[in-house]
Structure formats: C-alpha cells, structure tokens
Amino acid sequence: MSRLFVLGAALAAIWLAAVAAEEKRPATLPDLISRLSSKDPQTRHSAARQLGNLGLAARDAVAQLARMLHDSSPEVRAAAAKALGQIGGPSTSALIDELNDRDAGGRIRAARVLAQIGPDAAEAVPALIATLKDKEANVRAAAAHALGEIGTAARSAAGPLARALRDPSTAVRKEAIVALGQIGPEALKPLGELLHDVSTTVRLDALRVLELFGPEAKETVPGLRKALNDAEIRVRVQAANVLGKIGKAAAEAVPELLEKLHEKKMDLQVAAANALVVLSMQGVPGLLEKVREADRKGRWAEPLILRQYGPVPADAIAALIRELDHKEPRVRAKAVLVLGQFGTAARPAVPALTRALKDNDEQVRLLAALSLARIERKPLDTLEAVENAVRQQGLALKEAFQQQMPLLAGQPAGQAIAFELPHLILVQAMMNPRLQLAYRHFFQLYISVVVSQQFDPRMTPLRQVFDQQMSLLGPEAIPALIDAINLVASHRVGFI
C-alpha cells in the first residue's frame, strides 16, 4: 500500500510540474488570438494588452481586435483600441469600417485610434473627410483630430477642414484649427478664402491658423491687407498680427499698417506698430523710423498703462530719478525698473538712467539698459549681455536654493519626520535672504524683458527662457513674487 502511495505521489508531482511548465511557457500569437474569444473578460483584456505589446507582429489579430471594439466590457474595448493603435498601419482598413458603426461611441473610438496611428493611416483620409459630416459633433471633432495627426498625408482634407471652421460645435472648430496647422501649406488657399466669410468667428479662426504658418502664409497677404479694414476690430488686430508673423514677405502691406497707426483703438495701433517693427528688423528699410516718428507726433498712443491709469505725474518721475542715487542697490534697481514701465513718459529720466549703466551693481546696470531701450523706443545694444544675465538668473536661483539645504544638516535623527521635512525646507527657503534676493532679481528682470518684448521681438527667446524657468518655481518664490507685484501695482503699472 505504501509503495502505491509513493508511486501515486510521484506521478502527481510530475503532472503538477508539467502544468507549471505549461503555464510559464510564453503564449504564442495563436494562443493570444484564441483567448480573445474567452468568456472571461479579464482573459480577453490580458490577451488584447499582450497583443498590443507585440506591435506590428500582431497584425494577424487585427480582425479579431476590431470585433473587440464592441465588447461588453469597457476595459476590453479600451485595450483592443490601444492594441490596434500599437499595431499601426495594418489596422487601418478595419478601423475605416468602424467609422460606419451605428454606435457613435464606436465611430469615435475608430477615429481616435486612427489618430494614434498617424501618417500610416493615410488610406483612411477619404473616410475621415466623410466623417466630418457626421450628425454627432463629438464624432466630427474626433475625425478632424485624426486628420490633423495624419498630417501632410491628409492634404486633400484642407478644404473640408476649412469649411469645418463654420461648424456649430466649438470642439469641432477647435480641432479643425489645429488640424489645418498640421496639414501644411495646402491649407493656405481655403483659409485665405475664409477671410471673406460672413461670420466674424470664422474669419478670426482662419486668421489664428494663418498665424501658425508664419512666412509660409505670404500668399495670403492680399487678403490680409483687406482684412485690415474689416468692420470688426478683432479681425483687424489679428490681421496685423499675422502680417507681423509673415515678416518681410508682407512688405506690400506697409501702407495699410502705417495707416493703422492713426486708429483710435489701442490694440490695433500696437499690433500694427509691432508688425512694422518686425518688418523693419527683417530688412524692409525705413520703417522703424516711420514708427518712431508717428509715436513722437502722437499719432499712435503711449503705452496702454498711460491710457488706463492716466498720465504719470512729473513729481513721480522726479522722485524715482532721485532714488537712482540711493545707497541701497535694491532701491536703485526698483526705481530703474519702474521708470522703464512708464515708457516714453519717463524721458526726463534718460540722463540719470544713462549714468546708471555704469552702476556698480550688475542688476541695476541690466535694468537700466532695458529701461532705456523701452523709453527711447530702440532695440537693445547690449542684448548679448541681457541674454547671458537671463540664463545666469536660473543658475543663481539653483545655487542659492542648494546652499540653504545644509541648514537642515546636523539635526537629531528622526527630528524632521517625513511630513515635516518638506515644510522645514520651504520655511527656511522663504526666510533665506540670499535666495529671496536671487528671486527678486529674477522677477525684476522678468518684468523688464516682458515689457521690452512688446517692441523688440528679439526678446522673445529670452521671454521663453524665463517662462520655462517660471514653470519650475515652487512656493519658496512667493515672497519675491508678491514683492514684485506690489512694486508694480504701487506705481500704477497694470500689465501683471
């Protein structure tokens, strides 16, 4: 009996080992495809996910996965859709069929997967164009998005997408705008035709797309020149913005842009002036002096702040000039900064600001250069120095923050428990004079660069460097930020 028991146990062990080995064996493609028919939704979900991970190698599973888009389990449907996208181009034909699904959700899923596939789904372009007329707005929006993701291979969709800017759905119009920008120059002709549309919204949307093309949109300049006389002020402003993006290729629009410097609307004056400055810097001769002349004669307005809050009192300018001789660099820097915000109204301060270019404090010197450029309406001579300073600000912030970290060293083990440590770091960062000084310098220079960018497009890369740094700042920057905002607000400067 005992021998039979031992023999039975041995056979059982062998069988269990064989089963375990079978379970550990990697599933083959046929195995995974067969599991898509399982009654267990978890098994179907796992099989779809693994097939997607195989990518193009799982192309034989496309038909079965396409059927799984109608699975009773939402998790399985999602896994099947993702897998079809991972397989890529071979899934396109099946997804085209799904664009005709009776269920709107199925049509949306198909369009979204085609968007995931991108340029390899080019054969779906005709079907997606037809889907732009779907009765469901969400389906139309998904189709527009997919055409944009397919990109230049969807150039035949330029006209239908341009017409989609008339769609009653905001979501569809938004996706059409992005898609037209992704399709490429083929979109320019239908967009140019929309500049004459009866709908203000359509004209504005067409202009917003044209702005994305920059110099490539030069063929639309004749239409843009007419748009500068549009009955709607927002259209006129946007047309001036687009001409500025096109640059010197829009030189034929100079007469209309100069005329807009006489407009009563501040937004249009500024947009036209900015466009003219860009054209001048790109090689259209004589324009910058015409803009300056128009400003000097009062043909276009002083900075918006002066209109919004009234003229700057002469005694305020005089008080700021006196602060330029203060013994504290921080006081001098603030005075220089504020004078720059007042633009041409601060011209009496030019001699004192010129002396400040030799100040023994680097921050004061940089701010003085930026302020003088703003007040005198001319490009910055020391642009390279400002570029270096902008990048140094980021390094100074990093160094100052790292130097305050050792303040926590030497504390008894366990005293700063997990939830207290970040709080201690934050509190000490907010109280650290060196760090806060670095942040004050950062925000002061940021304000000057933002204002200078309005008339000197070369400041745009510096603005982008600052914006990138701003997105990384933590709560420790709050005291210096409040200080900068209070400084600006207390002197009635309203661009923040």
Q: How would you sum up this structure in a few lines?
A:
The chain has 496 residues and is mainly α. It has helices at residues 2-24, 29-35, 41-54, 62-68, 74-87, 92-98, 104-117, 125-131, 137-150, 158-163, 170-183, 188-194, 200-213, 221-227, 233-246, 254-260, 266-281, 287-296, 304-309, 314-323, 329-341, 350-356, 362-376, 383-404, 421-431, 433-453, 460-470, 478-490.
Summed over residues and divided by their number, the pLDDT gives a mean of 76
The largest sheet is: none
Uncertain regions spanning at least 5 consecutive residues: 15-24, 299-310, 407-423, 489-496
Strand content: under 5%
Give the topology:
Blueprint: H1 2-24, H2 29-35, H3 41-54, H4 62-68, H5 74-87, H6 92-98, H7 104-117, H8 125-131, H9 137-150, H10 158-163, H11 170-183, H12 188-194, H13 200-213, H14 221-227, H15 233-246, H16 254-260, H17 266-281, H18 287-296, H19 304-309, H20 314-323, H21 329-341, H22 350-356, H23 362-376, H24 383-404, H25 421-431, H26 433-453, H27 460-470, H28 478-490
